[in-house]
Amino acid sequence: MSNDTRIERDPLGPVSVPADRYYGAQTARALANFPISGIPIKSMPSVIQALAHVKMAAAQANCDEGLLPSEKRDAIVLASQEVLAGKHDDEFLVDVFQGGAGTSTNMNMNEVLANRASELLGGVRGEGRLVHPNDDVNRSQSTNDAYATAVRLSVIPTSRHLRDALADLATALNCKAKEFADIRKLGRTQLQDAVPMTLGEEFAAFATTLLEDCDRLDDTERLFLEVNLGGTAIGTGVAATPSYRLRAIENLSRNMQLPVVGSKDLLEASWDMGAFMLHMGLLKRIAAKLSKIANDFRLLSSGPRGGIGEIVLPSIQPGSSLMPGKVNPVAAEALNQVCFYVYGMDTTVGMAAEAGQLQLNAMEPVIIFSIHNAMELLRQAIGTFARTCVEGVQANAAQCEANLKNSTAFATELVTSIGYEAAAELVKARLAI
Which CA distances in Å does 331 have to 299, 315, 321? Predict the structure, then answer.
């Protein structure tokens, strides 16, 4: 990046912008106004891509409506396709924590596309550009429907990646379930001896609970296909025609190859965060299940001599700077910590959804960042746990058998033949030895 700058103007006055950047005045203001986390919006690529799709669909619809010349449409479409190809990722630097209900993100995209489209038409970047960020790229739109539509659709590909990671982990667990199918062991309730089972049954149950949530992720996807594009500022559709709305949604659905539909109540859709809350609740549920599995791995591998010791986890790093030979269940511990963090993001989403007032929820940026962050962290943690722990876990069949033989588990099987009280007396006698 060079030290040369250009001067651009927005409604608040002149702004200095790096000369070699495609973004413009309002993005430059946002970069100065929100130096908060250091995490740019480009860290959520599916958001950037979905917003580019919205701008492309809008340009096509505006041209069909006679509101945008075909040459400008073509230039905006081509610039949008370059964004989709990742050619301009470094232009999307606004912080994920931002005021304005996503206006900074929307204007970041508008400015990048306007300047790049101008170049494609033989023009320049900056105030002399041939394509205007508001009048052309943002025509018939508000942040409140363009950005809102994009962030909803952005959840879908990220959620699918998480679902695939969950399915892969379930597959790894089921493989171990088959491997451990004939290994008898002690089943426990409240950490006390219960009844006999197999280690394979225990691992198969882990897989089953995760596959259930793969199905739930598929179910929630449809909630994000309903969008408020065309509702503009608050859902009344001001500055957009009804036919534009229909055309834009048709284009968006075709371009993204998704069955996108318009919201039935555009005013409600402008502020309602129910789909995000439901999805974040599902992410919390997934985290709770994963954390339970991680807890069980740590318990079952505890020891190796002074604990349960029924499974042996892969030794992936030394466990102590003082105690020789100690190996800790670090993969499971890391998964636990990610899950705890997701619980906190669920609280954030709930509070942000409630904090919306009247016809708009200005807290949408932190909602979408929390959901994307949660999905990506879970995906990475799941993949790491599967690769470094589950795939290499081994059964300690001898310890499983010893724990079972030394337990009171078989007393339950005697109940049907000698009765509950007689069986209880046998347990007491055994424990007294």
Answer: 13, 10, 18
Peptide bond into 196 cis (omega under 30): no
Q: Is residue 10 part of a domain?
A: no
pLDDT band at 182; cut points 50, 70, 90: very high
Asked if the structure places residue 92 within a domain, the reply is: yes
Q: Give the separation between CA 309 and CA 205, rounded to whole angstroms.
A: 20
Q: What does the alpha-carbon distance between residue 279 and residue 298 come to, in Å, rounded to a whole number?
A: 29
Contact 335, 291 (CB under 8 A): yes
Cα(337)–Cα(287) distance, integer angstroms: 10
pLDDT tens digit sequence for 76-90: 999 999 999 999 999
Rounded to two decimals, the pTM is 0.92
Chain centroid offset of residue 221 CA:
12
Residues with Cβ within 8 Å of residue 330, at least 6 apart in sequence: 316, 317, 319
* Nearest by Cα to 214 from 285, 147, 149: 285
Which residues partner with 226 through β-bridges? 261
> Which residue reads 């099987």 in tokens?
413
**Do residues 329 and 199 both lie within one domain?**
yes
Residues 118 and 163 in one domain: no
Domain of 34 in residue numbering reads as: 19-139
Q: Which residues are catalytic?
A: 320
Per-residue pLDDT tens for 235-292?
Answer: 999 999 999 999 999 999 999 999 999 999 999 989 999 999 999 999 999 999 999 9
What single DSSP character describes residue 69? Answer: -
Number of residues that this document lists for the chain:
433
| Structural domain contains residue 177 | yes
Q: Which residues contact 383 (CB under 8 A, 6 or more apart)?
A: 165, 168, 169
Enter the DSSP assignment of 303.
-
199-221 and 143-179 helices, crossing angle to 10°: 160
Is residue 153 within 8 Å of residue 258, measured between CB atoms? yes
- CATH number of the domain enclosing 97: 1.10.275.10
